[in-house]
Amino acid sequence: MPTPALAIRPVEPHELEAVGELTVLAYRADGLSYDTYEPSLRDAASRARTATVLVAEQEDRLVGAVTVATRLGPWAEQAVRGDAVVRMLVVDPARRGRGIGAALAAACVDVARADGCSVLRLSSHDGSPAHRVYERLGFARVPELDWSPGGGVVLRAFALPLVPWCGQCGEELTPGGHEHCRAAAESEPPRYCVQCRRPVQATPAGWTARCAEHAPLTG
Question: Which residues of the chain have pLDDT under 50?
Answer without folding.
Answer: 218-219
